[in-house]
């Protein structure tokens, strides 16, 4: 198995197009054509993790956080990023990161957090826009099901928790084949009228190439008429944060103790209690203060995230409880998510989970 095959599986789950503009997810160091000896899964690709990879014979480290976030102008070992780069390259260890693209997919980092709390009825807290397109095409009635099925197989037609969604309208199309054509129906040089179905399907932007290939392969016409338009719809399967419900209401302090235990947090920083039970919970892995208004607007009783600044705690304004559990604590189970993604696809392959705790924050 080559490195590129591992990457393809991860990116099929968390497409790179879903990463934020400031991010640097992807293959940081290494040759995608290299054969994999084994994979080490981690939250952070630190020097200690690279040493662990060397000791365990792993030539690919898959991390959540990109070790190189900004540009490197010099690599002389003066800081930990440069030292990781030098050590990884010298020892032929590739480093790959799936960061905000893995945060933004519905079954990504936030859902992994939600599972730890037992949340149900989960949905993306702040869905993203501009990630969907719609295909319109025109197919002879007798061939409509064949084309429709091919588009569904390629990934079109998903709306929320529904699949194979399409709109079909009957109509009549006309065309005249010019000299040198070989029309599927009709005679060259004569206008032809054909009963057709106008077929509409929605699809995520990253699948456009695959969708078009499926259309052109399945459609019977020599020249296929189609339109693709960009949509501004919010994509319910992709975005920031998650909101769900506890199976039953919990008293506030009991809920905070539950959160602390499930995330093995050294401490939980929280806003004043409201004297109300907790049922609806919003959460975000990593620094999630930018989602506070969305959590309040969604009617959350509590918002679990990390890296809140002092004055941002005031912004809760007694409308919910902010529970800051720490950056590492909120994302630590990403390693388990990587493991699930890879072992689900490669049943006879066992990636290794790093035993290094990379949390740079300690608690007294």
Automatic annotation (TrEMBL):
InterPro entries recorded for this chain?
DUF34/NIF3 (IPR002678), DUF34/NIF3_bac (IPR017221), DUF34/NIF3_sf (IPR036069), N-reg_PII/ATP_PRibTrfase_C (IPR015867)
Entry keywords, A to Z: Metal-binding
An example of a Gene Ontology cellular component annotation for this protein is: cytoplasm
User: Which positions are annotated as binding a divalent metal cation 2?
Assistant: 64
- GO terms of molecular function: metal ion binding
Ligand binding (a divalent metal cation 1): 65, 103, 327, 331
Q: Does the keyword Cytoplasm apply?
A: no
Annotated TM spans: none
Domain of life of the organism in this record?
Bacteria
Query: What does the record list as coiled-coil region(s)?
Result: none
Among the Pfam families in the record, one is: DUF34_NIF3
Question: What is known about its subunit structure?
Answer: Homohexamer.
Q: Which family does it belong to?
A: Belongs to the GTP cyclohydrolase I type 2/NIF3 family.
Query: Under what name is this protein listed?
Result: GTP cyclohydrolase 1 type 2 homolog
Source organism of the structure: Chitinophaga terrae
């Amino acid at each position: 198995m080559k490195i590129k095959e591992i990457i393809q599986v991860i990116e099929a789950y968390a497409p790179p197009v879903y990463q934020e503009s400031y991010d640097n997810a992807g293959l940081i160091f290494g040759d995608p054509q290299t054969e994999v000896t084994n994979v080490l899964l981690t939250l952070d690709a630190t020097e200690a993790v690279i040493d662990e990879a060397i000791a365990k014979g792993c030539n690919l480290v898959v991390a959540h956080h990109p070790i190189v976030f900004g540009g490197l102008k010099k690599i002389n070992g003066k800081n930990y990023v440069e030292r990781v780069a030098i050590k990884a390259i010298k020892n032929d260890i590739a480093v790959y990161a799936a960061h905000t693209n893995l945060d933004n997919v519905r079954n990504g980092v936030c859902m992994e957090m939600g599972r730890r709390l037992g949340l149900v009825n989960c949905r993306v807290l702040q869905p993203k826009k501009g990630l969907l397109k719609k295909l319109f095409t025109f197919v002879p009635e007798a061939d409509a099901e064949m084309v429709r099925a091919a588009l569904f197989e390629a990934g079109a037609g998903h709306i929320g928790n529904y699949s194979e969604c399409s709109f079909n309208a009957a109509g009549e199309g006309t065309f005249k084949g010019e000299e040198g054509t070989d029309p599927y129906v009709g005679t060259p040089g004569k206008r032809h009228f054909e009963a057709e179905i106008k077929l509409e399907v929605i699809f995520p932007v990253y699948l456009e190439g695959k969708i078009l290939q499926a259309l052109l392969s399945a459609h019977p016409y020599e020249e296929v008429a189609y339109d693709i338009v960009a949509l501004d719809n919010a994509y319910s399967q992709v975005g920031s944060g998650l909101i769900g419900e506890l199976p039953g209401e919990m008293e506030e302090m009991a809920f905070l103790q539950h959160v602390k235990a499930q995330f093995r947090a050294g401490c939980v920083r929280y806003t004043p209690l409201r004297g109300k039970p907790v049922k609806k919970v919003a959460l975000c892995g990593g620094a999630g203060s930018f989602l506070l208004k969305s959590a309040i607007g969604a009617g959350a009783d509590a918002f679990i995230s990390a890296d809140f600044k002092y004055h941002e705690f005031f912004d809760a304004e007694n409308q919910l409880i902010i529970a800051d559990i720490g950056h590492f604590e909120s994302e630590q189970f990403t390693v388990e998510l990587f493991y699930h993604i890879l072992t689900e696809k490669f049943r006879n392959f066992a990636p290794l989970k790093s035993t290094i705790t990379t949390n740079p924050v300690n608690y007294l």
